[in-house]
Amino acid sequence: MKAPRFAYARPATIAEALALLDKHKEDARVLAGGQSLVPMMNFRVAAPKVLVDINRIPALAGIKITKSHVRIGALTRHVHLERSVEIADYLPLVSAAMPQVAHAAVRSRGTFGGSCALADPAAELPACALALGATFVVAGKKGERRVEAEDFFKGLYATALKPNELLVAAEFPRAKPGYVSAFGELARRHGDYAMVGVAAHGSTKGGKFADMRIAFFGVADRPLRAARLERALEGQPAAKKSIEAAVAQLDDDLDPRADLHASAATKLHLAKVLVRRVIGSMEAATA
Ligand SMILES: Cc1cc2nc3c(=O)[nH]c(=O)nc-3n(C[C@H](O)[C@H](O)[C@H](O)COP(=O)(O)OP(=O)(O)OC[C@H]3O[C@@H](n4cnc5c(N)ncnc54)[C@H](O)[C@@H]3O)c2cc1C
Predict the structure, then answer these.
(1) Which pLDDT tens digit goes with each residue over 147-170?
(2) Most-buried pick from 36, 192, 200, 262 (CB within 10 A)?
(3) Alpha carbon distance 280, 143 (integer Å)
């Protein structure tokens, strides 16, 4: 199928893009990598009247390291995150996630901002943003505002972005010494969206778990932190025994829905299997 007719605009600056979004409001959609939006238009799941193509706005792309954080521009392509030495050094969790995001062809066009703005509940990058405590930078007519990852993902394909706003970047706090992260996912085939995935970050300083942030994806309508599991690990020795004792908390933390891939019970089981592996690798990193 082909997309319904639409008008096309290619602004050169953020200000021009915002003016177009404000003018056309719900009728407009931002076009980034187009890897999700274009198929949705071809299947007629989405029918925007105006496409605002942000691909020629250089200010939206790139990775910047400051003293306090790592800033990833919304238009930074997946392939750049995957190959970036800076991301590997400063955000190893994101580096570990990237090979799992779709396939090489999709990663060459798909963008960080597109992935977060789309908010697929089984996507890797939103869960990494949540685990790492990222803040999203959102621009609108009245200027910029900042939204914590915790408040950004609102539900199935729903975010805190308003129709006349643009996701500009995300700022990830730089990890403190003694903090480690680990990533894992189970998918039917490599490159598919996850059946269940876990992105974890926290301290294992002095051989004890502290400040753990464990974000699951593919188990709810949005990426989800396992609050009870995190609390159960706090202050415990970074060892298999503590992980095993804490994993039972997932019965209360998660309430997965059955989907095309698996029943709810299977998803919960897989979440437990995966989290043992992921947190186990953080424990191993301390040893
Ligand atoms: C075969 C295939 C497999 C895939 N597998 C995975 C996978 O395993 N994991 C995964 O995470 N993704 C997967 N994807 C999706 C891929 O990662 C996309 O790149 C991503 O979902 C959207 O990024 P994009 O830049 O292409 O955005 P687009 O398709 O251009 O846009 C997606 C949505 O975000 C909005 N948007 C984009 N940028 C902005 C912005 N800066 N501000 C406001 N709104 C914005 C658009 O208006 C649109 O609604 C897959 C895609 C395909 C085709």
Answers:
(1) 999 999 999 999 999 999 999 999
(2) 200
(3) 44
